[in-house]
Design goal:
By secondary structure, the chain is α+β, with helices and mostly antiparallel strands. Helix content is about 40%, strand content about 20%. The relative contact order is 0.14.
Length: about 400
């Protein structure tokens, strides 16, 4: 083992990249930088900068070298996503029981940035104003459309793409992603918020053998007994004896079930839902659409709750992996960074004893790196490596 590098071909991260088949697509220097990113980004103190990666991974290179790996390095992002998607599909399907449905979860988030002044020369490429559902206003940054696959327990990122204004719409982007999904062996569902619940997305899922369960805006039109009326207006006629109380994940909801057609959508279920203590109160109504009319009301709501992990994914990657704090400026670097963030999230989530939890896997991965560092120092001592060389590699000289 070279005393100049702590990373070895036997490291857990290296073996993970091997399982993804990356050795078929990428050179050893590229793989080494990927390994350095994963090792650096899981450490405490990581804030999303290239400098952090180099310092925290103890990489034997300058930050500009890693910066060029992102902006100018010779590696194909499509090959990386191909390896990731094959791995994720295999991991989800192997983990799922024969009776468990597969879920494809869609949502978007904004990596918010500071709007540059008109005189700024080096701005972050392809940023713009996007509507933030959290802040209820327009914010500056990149909008990221994300897809995750799940068996109801394990949830892994399948795709992260930047939305680019003036090019494909987010609906078109989702439809293209659906077209790339594996054909299910059993029941499979797409899960989305009200932004993506429309006939194009539904038809794209039908073609792949998936049903769709999505939130529905309350101004959508339904046709009870052939009468055209918006969901919110129809809810005024629903009385207490028309609803039933359903318990989902320890919470109770009053629900009303409508089955029929909507504009552009054939026979589907629409669920009207109110929290137990807020029946017919202003702003309390939530509506959901499900194209699988055989599912019970309780099952539809339970399946829709499987969408929540994508919100947790956004929070975890922003707080821990730099999804909201990256400082690279070129669009190419940003797209490559999204690949590396996905790799890191998957690596932590599949750790043994992590129980499909990124948070637990992150702690396990950090401890594994510490053990590798200590083992390396021990081996250096066994091989009579001068202490000053050890200090140099550990960046404490």
């Amino acid at each position: 083992m070279s005393h100049r590098s702590i990373l070895t071909e036997k490291s857990a991260i290296n073996q993970f990249l091997f399982k993804l088949g990356f050795f078929l697509y990428f050179s050893k220097p590229v793989l080494k930088h990927m390994e350095q990113f994963i090792k650096g980004s899981i450490q405490k103190g990581y804030k999303g900068t290239v400098t952090d990666i180099v310092l925290l991974s103890l990489a034997n290179c300058h930050r500009t070298t890693f910066g060029k790996f992102l902006s100018e390095g010779v590696w194909n992002i499509n090959f990386a996503w191909k390896g990731i998607r094959k791995f994720v599909v295999r991991a989800i399907y192997e983990d799922a029981s024969s009776e468990s449905p597969i879920f494809a979860i869609y949502d978007d988030t904004i990596s918010e940035k500071t709007k540059p002044s008109s005189k700024a020369e080096n701005t972050i490429q392809e940023t713009g104003f996007h509507h933030s559902h959290l802040k209820h206003k327009q914010v500056w940054g990149h909008q990221l459309l994300t897809t995750m696959l799940s068996d109801g327990k394990k949830v892994l990122p399948y795709s992260i793409e930047r939305y680019k204004k003036g090019e494909k719409s987010k609906i078109e982007m989702v439809c293209e992603i659906v077209d790339e999904l594996p054909s299910p062996k059993g029941k499979a569902y797409g899960l989305c918020d009200s932004w993506f619940t429309n006939k194009d997305v539904i038809n794209a899922h039908f073609k792949k053998g998936y049903h769709l369960i999505g939130a529905l805006k309350t101004n959508r039109v339904i046709y009870p007994k052939g009468i055209s009326i918006q969901v919110k207006d129809f809810s005024q006629y629903i009385q207490k004896n028309d609803v039933c109380l359903v318990t989902v994940n320890n919470s109770k909801y009053w629900t009303y079930r409508y089955e029929g057609n909507l504009n552009g959508i054939d026979n589907s279920v629409v669920l009207f839902c109110w929290p137990e203590n807020a029946f017919k109160k202003d702003g309390a109504l939530h509506a959901f659409l499900c194209t699988d009319t055989e599912l019970s009301t309780k099952t539809i709501l339970e399946y829709y709750s499987k969408r929540w992990p994508i919100e947790i994914f956004f929070k975890q990657t922003k707080n821990n992996l730099g999804l909201n704090t990256y400082q690279v400026r070129s669009a190419k670097s940003i797209d490559r960074l999204l690949v590396l963030i996905s790799l890191t999230y998957i690596y932590c989530s599949i750790q043994e004893n992590a129980n499909n939890s990124f948070s637990k896997g992150l702690i396990i991965s950090r401890n594994s790196v510490r053990k590798d560092n200590i083992q390396w120092i021990y081996d250096c001592a066994q091989n009579n490596i001068p202490i000053k060389d050890v200090f140099n590699v550990m960046k404490i000289a």
